[in-house]
Write a structure and sequence with these properties.
seven-stranded mixed β-barrel, alpha/beta
Length: about 400
């Protein structure tokens, strides 16, 4: 029996992690990040927010339930550069499974690395911060550490790079699918028929499903769509989606939002949260580690805590936001960074975390109700009003 092919993760500081290869044979460079969710690897792999990243899962065994059909995908393709796990499950036990994680990565030409001590990797990243790296499963190059270090150090990284233009849709389309079998008992309590235009910066399908489930008619437009074209669609509200990387170079979305603020209610999630803040005149900066996985978030008015799902490496600067008319509504309990804000005057609000929570908890689903209410009233919800909306959503 031949030995299992080896694989290596090589970091820009020269660190080398050697394990077993799975997935495709490739040499991929990217930003090495870690994700704390215990499940949801299919959603993570297909989430555009992870473009150009090598994702290490902190949970010890990954692949247990295999891969299901397209219903669990967040987009039509994989966006990660590679997947790093402690142990790749030898079985796929799930009645919905159609293939193994190994076969799935092979099909999309994405490399995987198993058998390394992911705790050591995460500890290193927590001390040094997120680093550039190379994941190599190509057996012709895997033993050339010097070349792999060179590739890692020569990569330009994500700061100042426009990834939205790569992952976003290039056409206008309507989205009609709701959450299907994943709908909650408390969904559709306040049905509406408001028309929402979604600016696609790398939108997750689960976000679109939540909008439809909340009663919205959804039209998705490319990120480079001008404000005049968006307004010509006669939306009742505008939604700015999640997406990958640095928000600063996404000038075209910021320019469109500046013209829409005050004309239409706006709700942003993830990258959309950052882009709305930049459009208002605030600043953003890159985190040492980023937030990927579960995070505790506190409502600033009530001190109530939500467990949230997150996937971002940049955040909004709070001081600059307050200067330009933004009011914080939610804060991260781990590092006290901004997790949500409202415009003090205009109907606009946003959150950094993911209320659609795919994968993750459902504590933030009420925010889609807040969007409906903002469209009805023309006023951005306060932190206290968001808390009341959450109570109504959770009432049995």
């Amino acid at each position: 029996m031949s030995a299992a092919p080896i694989a290596k993760l090589v970091l820009e500081d020269g660190s080398v992690f050697t394990g077993v290869a799975f997935g495709a044979s490739a040499v991929n460079v990217g930003e090495v990040v870690f994700h704390t969710s215990c499940f949801g690897y299919q959603e993570i792999l297909t989430d555009p927010s992870y473009k150009q990243q090598l994702v290490a899962m902190t949970y010890t065994q990954i692949g247990n339930y295999g891969i299901v059909d397209q219903t669990d995908n967040e987009s039509d393709r994989l966006h990660v550069q590679g997947l790093i796990v402690k142990e790749l499950s030898p079985i796929s036990s799930n009645f919905r499974s159609i293939e193994t994680l190994d076969d799935y990565l092979k099909r999309y030409n994405i490399p995987g690395l198993a058998g390394i001590d992911t705790r050591t990797l995460v500890r290193k990243l927590r001390v040094r911060g997120i680093m550039k790296g190379v994941l190599c499963t190509d057996q012709k190059l895997v033993r050339d550490d010097a070349e792999l270090v060179k590739r890692a150090t020569s990569w330009t990284g994500l700061v100042g790079v426009d990834l939205v233009d790569i992952v976003g849709s290039k056409k206008v389309y309507a989205w009609n699918e709701n959450k299907g079998e994943w709908a909650l008992p408390t969904d559709n309590r306040h049905p509406t028929n408001f028309h929402v235009v979604v600016i696609d910066c790398g939108v997750k399908r689960s976000i679109l499903g939540n909008l439809v489930q909340s009663g919205f008619r959804v039209t998705v437009v490319p990120a480079k769509t001008a404000a005049e074209e968006i307004l010509a669609l006669s939306p009742d509200g505008v939604f700015v989606s999640n997406g990958p990387g640095d928000p600063a170079p996404i000038h075209y979305v910021q320019a469109a939002l500046r013209k829409i603020i005050g004309k239409k209610p706006i709700f942003g999630i993830g990258l959309g949260h950052q882009l709305l803040a930049l459009a208002m005149g605030a600043g953003t900066y890159k985190l040492k580690l980023g937030h990927r996985g579960g995070q505790a978030v506190q409502n600033v008015a009530t001190r109530k805590v939500e467990m949230t799902s997150q996937s971002h490496g940049f955040v909004v600067d709070i001081a600059s936001l307050k200067v330009c008319g933004g009011e914080p509504t939610h804060m991260n309990l781990n590092d006290h960074t901004l997790e949500g804000f409202r415009h003090a005057v205009e109907p606009a609000f946003a959150v950094q975390y993911h209320p659609e929570a795919s994968p993750g908890p459902h504590d933030g689903v009420y925010l889609f109700d807040c969007f409906s209410e903002m469209i009805r009233t023309g006023k951005a919800p306060t932190a206290a009003q968001m808390n009341e909306a959450q109570k109504r959503r959770n009432a049995v």
